[in-house]
Each structure stands twice: as C-alpha cells, then as structure tokens.
Amino acid sequence: MIELRDVRHSYRRPGGGDLPVLAGVNLSIGGGDAVSIIGSSGGGKTTLLNIIGCLLRPTGGDVFIDGAFIPSMGEKELALLRNERIGFIFQGSHLIPTLTVLENILLPAWLNKRRGGRDKRARAHEFAERFGLVERLKHLPHELSLGQRRRVAIARALINEPAILLADEPTNDLDPPRAEQIGDILFDLNKEGLTLLLVTHKSELARRAPQCYEIKDGSLRVAELSQMG
Question: CA angle at residue 164 from 59 to 80, to 5 degrees?
Fold first, then answer.
C-alpha cells in the first residue's frame, strides 16, 4: 500500500546550500498494518510523514501509494488522492477556529464532491458519538480541551473513509490519561482494518505498534524497543 525507495529530502538554507533531512529512506507498509516512527525533534519525522501524505515532494527517490507512482502525479491528482485515500491528523490538530466542531469534521467531505456512499452528516454524528463529542458539535475549537480538539481532528481525518491514517504527534501536549485515550482510539481503528502510520517522540505510544522504526541522522532503522524509555 505504501512503499518508499531510497527517499531523500533536503531543505534550502536561507544563506545558501542544502540541509539534508532524509538520506535514503526505504519503507514498506501493507494494508491494515500499524507502524510507528520515533525520533528526536527535528529529526525528519514530520518531513517523512508529509512525503507519504503527498503534501511534500521528495528531493529524490520513489514513493508509491496503492501502486501509484507519486512523483509523476500532478497537483490535482495528488489533491484527489489525499482527499479520498489518506486521512491526516496534524500536529496541534489545526482546526478552523471559525467553524463549529461539526463543520470542522465535515470540511473534507464538503471539499470532495465525488464522494458517494453514506450520508456525510450522519457519518459525522456517528464519529461524534463514538468519540464523546455529541455535546460539543455546536462549539468552536477555543471552547474545547486539547483532548477534545484531538478527537475532532481524528473524526475529520476519517470523514471520507480513507484507507490510510497518518498521525503526526497525536498525543503531544496531552496528559497521560488523555494520551492513552487517543492511543486507544487510533489502535482500535487499526484493528478495524485502517492502515495506521504515526510519528511520535513518545516511546510508550510508539511501542504499541507491531512495527516500530527509529529515524536518526536521516536514516530509518528498526527501533530497539528494549532501549526505549
């Protein structure tokens, strides 16, 4: 479902020259897998996730999603792929401050005119019920706790019924009970067949995934779980 071959990425320094972030990453994720990537801040985790999520084009290497060769696709094709196949939980949730909880959840569905299937509003209410947000549907993001905002972000990522869920530091800034709750939600979704890839600096979350990798010095390797705190 997801395959990376020798993926490299560098950013341009303000004063000139390149700043290498990824140096030949190889990764294969099958449908229904749960994979975590751990690493220090600034180590390239978010860059890698953005490349897999088709938000960033790599400097070099090959990326395949469901067999599609991503580097050859145009922006409109990538936008459609993101909207229909990939759900993204951004670090910090990134809810629209002027939209209600219900409107935030429905936003990706509104942007996808081609999507059929079950009624979108009914699906949003199903997620609200499942994630304990029914009483908050008319509230704005600033009226929510951090944990509630994260649950809204998860519901929004799922509204178009994607096959892949990407989560960038999904438990960041949450206290232990709320972090565990979010982890439970993500791995329950994986048990239902959703492909899950999360990046985190928290070892307690990372080790819940059957496949755990560490990114260091731009390279990806199997994490040594016994050495994780």
Answer: 70
Going by pLDDT thresholds of 50, 70 and 90, the confidence category of residue 113 is low
Residues in Cβ contact with 135 at an 8 Å cutoff, skipping those fewer than 6 apart: none
Gap between the Cα atoms of 70 and 68, Å rounded: 6
Please name the helix (run of DSSP H) or strand (run of DSSP E) that holds residue 144, with its range, or none. none
Report the CATH number at residue 71: 3.40.50.300
Q: What is the pTM of this model?
A: 0.91
Separation of alpha carbons 114 and 204, rounded Å: 39
Torsion of CA 17, 19, 20, 21, to 10 degrees: -160
Query: How many structural domains compose the chain?
Result: 1
Domain holding 108, by residue range, is: 2-227
